[in-house]
């Protein structure tokens, strides 16, 4: 039987005011281990949503002091997306997955008779595929790391989904026998299988993986933010420029950059 | 809009003829040498607008130099061609621009040649990659429009050239005597800054056109219609995430490069 959105969603939501600065948004995202905040107006109604990906714009466009100053003046209300995509709690998980794919979003506001009650994200649906309890994402998985999840291209999809859920990672790096990156599988790639209740048949990661976008280990955060935005990817594979075909050095995600922006000593917090 | 600037003012037929005949001489020589040297700037507009080219003189648009687009891989051959035609290169410009631009002077006729290699890199970058083969002896009509529309502080001379172009050529999805708006829309969809400047200037051209006494009423309305249609093309093109994010920031962050004029 197809699961309902209300069974998979996370109740409640993390919010901010439209006047919140990007630095404040970064801090709230990091402290709450979430990837998006709902922006609430003075009337208590949801005005929009701001994600960690939106915040990358801050790093991307702050190449000179004048631009940095302008970006530091920007608020959640300026940068948020509106209107917010939503789904009713009694809708099926399959319907939620289809809506995310159609609208190219990673989360939906869940409503009950029109009233906001929670959030459902790609990660929640991926967790259901693996038939595992939803685990809270570990902090270590949200920061740039030289330890990351890998698999070979013949790995079954169900195994990849299970590994992602149990580790709290939102992606798996697919490598060849020598460790050379072949591609990346993210939650979005797994969505077409959400209605099979974990029955992914004979599908393997090579069937769904997307190309890995690489970045040199010495590149700046600004370069990483630009690359993420321009390619509309949420993570980059960090390679050693001296050995680009060797096993990668690590993975940097949009959230890693936001976590950096949220650090007390960051320029965004001053 | 800056007025009374370089490129505006009365110019005798003899003086205009001097530029046009020298351009013809260079084009013939480059064609014989098998070089990909394409005309840009005021003379390109004159060549590509046989019906409305008279407006340049009528509206006080003067020639100041002869500009070309070329591929960097032919730099050596172009230098040799220009030397053979009596020109001396100002090597400092090539060094400062890291080989993306060359200026040649002819001291016998006091003419000045500007060659832009691989791209035009002023307020925004307009790449020639794969585009110089599309038309001849000028760059394609879409690049001619972009050449003008990428200028943030647009001058009257650029407005005059654009009006001529919009009167002479239809907008469409190909490069055959047509301004390829599909190509321009794609470039603008990949670069919010270029979109911002292009839409701003198209709007400006439409508003300024109605104030020129040298234009007939039907010509004025034709320019306004063309501008509206061009903006519709840019609006209809789907925009990627990077464009949409940049659009939310808008004018708060500068979207163009400041330009230092080299004459």
Strand-helix topology:
The complex is a heterodimer of chains A (270) and B (263).
Chain A (H helix, E strand, L loop, with lengths): L4 H4 L1 E2 L3 E2 L5 H11 L3 E5 L5 E6 H9 L4 H9 L2 H4 L6 E3 L4 H11 L3 E6 L2 E7 H8 L9 H4 L7 E3 L4 H11 L3 E5 L5 E6 H4 L14 H4 L5 E3 L4 H11 L3 E5 L10 E4 H9 L8
Chain B lengths: L12 H20 L4 E4 L1 H7 L5 H5 L7 E5 L4 H10 L3 E2 L1 H6 L4 E6 L4 E7 L1 E3 L3 E3 L13 H9 L6 H13 L2 E2 L6 E2 H9 L2 H18 L7 H20 L4 H9 L14
Parallel strand pairs in B: 2-5, 8-9
Antiparallel strand pairs in B: 1-2, 3-4, 4-5, 6-7
Keywords:
heterodimer; A: 270 residues; alpha/beta; three-stranded mixed beta sheet; 13 helices; 13 strands; flat; B: 263 residues; five-stranded mixed beta sheet; two-stranded antiparallel ribbon; 11 helices; 9 strands; globular
**Beta-strand content of chain B:** 5-15%
End-to-end Cα distance of chain B? 20 Å
Fraction of residues in β-strands of chain A: 15-25%
Low-confidence segments of chain A, given as residue ranges, are 132-143
Report the uncertain regions of chain B: none
One letter per element, helices H and strands E, the order of chain B comes to HEHHEHEHEEEEHHEEHHHH
Which structural class fits the helix and strand makeup of chain A? alpha/beta
- The number of helices of chain B is 11
Distance between the termini of chain A: 51 Å
